[in-house]
Amino acid sequence: MIRSLVQYTSFFASGLADARLRALMRAHAAGAVPVQEDLSSLLPEALTDVAGHLCRAQDSGVDRGLGSFHLVYGWGASYPETTGYIVPTLLALSDRLGREDLRLRALEAADWLVSIQRTDGGWQGGRVGEDRPSVVFNTAQVVRGLLAAHDTAGGSRYHEAAARACDWMVRVQESDGSWAGHNFLGSRRVYDTYVSAPLLHMAERTGRPAYREAALKNLAWVLTRQRLNGWFADADNTVKHNDRPITHTIAYTIDGLLECFAYTADERLLEAARRPAEALLGTFERNGSLNGRYDAHWQGSEAAITTGCAQLAIVWARLHRITGDPRWQEGCVRMVRWLAAVQRLSVQGPAPMQGAVTGSFPLWGRYEKFACPNWAQKYLADALLCAEGRTPRY
User: Fold this and answer.
1) Measured between alpha carbons, how far is 224 from 96 in angstroms, rounded to an integer?
2) Crossing angle for the helix pair 100-115 and 136-153, nearest 10 degrees?
3) Where does the chain have alpha helices with state H?
4) Domains, the chain, ranges and CATH?
5) Contact partners, residue 151, CB within 8 Å, separation at least 6
């Protein structure tokens, strides 16, 4: 509590002393009115702007990974996990915007990831320089990027690195199907559905049954953690707040289930995803906004988390594609209009953040406060593409 108070005091003091940051804070205090212009003009502009920010995130450091911009501290070191799943986003942006430079950037990021793969087959947790051990969740997100890079450039190196990673994830899986000892905080978490999905993808590509068996074992465990109202226990990325997880990790869980449904056609996974997606869509339809955290009764708390909001827009778009129900796509587009409004407020802030959304809205919310995490930009870009009917593949 004291540490958080000191940090907030420091951030607000910095904000008041900097004219651009002060203007951004005023803009966030006024709120974000959803953009109402035609999608044909809204989406290309928003996609171009977020692509520009991702390029700056890659150019900010000493390697070809991507860092994140903090409004007080500046650019941080590259983050292997998020660089991994940003690779397919850069490739999708390259296709949509007709920009070869984005394709080359994606492959440079993938090459860098291969170069820092651990001898055990995994990738480190946290950011470069923190010297953390290999983490299952982070490793699985790098696999997503390597699969996309392989599909784009061919060759064997990306595929071989992905296979070594999957072999390691299978080896360290717990007997109950979860991952704990080699995951963040040593905790079992249901958002490892987002690990199972790339394992199923690799099983389809390689024909190796161990990958599919590990994924199905994890999914069976995840289903035991869901309540009748759709809420999942063990869905937060903390211990302290596991009773009210953030929308970011809730959405990981749902999106992973939907991806796994695509590989298995298991209706139980679709239903397990539909129930929490329905609960959150209903809240968004009624209120026009979402909180950052939700407890077991779907009671919300804390400021909106832009990453989670964007991920839920993607979830709703996936459900539209699966079911054909227009309500899901309408929810996606409505959320994208709000996200685009938050993105446009970036023109009020420091130049490096242009085209980005802050981690929380308003920017002083507890999640990634006073920061523009690169993963928020990844999911913003994916959500924008979903509003056009382009759901992610990886």
Assistant:
1) 40
2) 130
3) 2-17, 19-30, 39-59, 80-97, 100-115, 136-153, 157-171, 193-206, 209-223, 247-264, 267-287, 306-323, 326-344, 374-387
4) 43-387 (1.50.10.10)
5) none
* Residue 388: Cβ-neighbour burial (10 angstroms; 0-12, 13-18, 19+): middle
For residue 332, give Cα distances in angstroms to 12, 114, 233, 309.
33, 34, 25, 9
pLDDT at position 2 is: 64
Phi, psi angles (nearest 5°) of residue 190: -70, -20
Residues 38, 171: Cα–Cα separation, whole Å: 50
Task: Match 């502009």 to its residue by tokens.
Answer: 45
| Average pLDDT by stretches of 10, the chain with 394 residues | 76 84 96 97 98 98 98 97 98 98 98 98 97 97 98 96 98 97 92 98 98 98 98 95 97 98 98 98 98 98 98 98 98 98 97 98 97 98 98 94
Half-sphere exposure of 288 (CA within 13 A, CB side): 7
Round to whole Å and give the CA distance between 62 and 115: 14
Which of 326, 363, 295 lies closest to 30 in space, CA to CA? 363
Q: What is the pLDDT of residues 342-376, one digit of tens each?
A: 999 999 999 999 999 999 999 999 999 999 999 99
pTM of the model: 0.97
Query: CA separation (Å) from 356 to 260, 344, 367?
Result: 30, 8, 16
DSSP 124: B
Can you give 201-261 as a three-state secondary structure string? HHHHHHCCHHHHHHHHHHHHHHHCCECCCCCECCCCCCCCCCCCCEHHHHHHHHHHHHHHH
Q: Which of 329, 289, 282, 285 is nearest to 33 (CA)?
A: 289
Prior bond of 362 cis (ω within 30°): yes
What pairing do the DSSP bridges indicate for beta strands 300-301 and 304-305?
unpaired
Residues 6+ away with beta carbon under 8 Å from 278: 230
Q: What is the pLDDT of residue 14?
A: 79
pLDDT tens digits, 30-59? 999 999 999 999 999 999 999 999 999 999
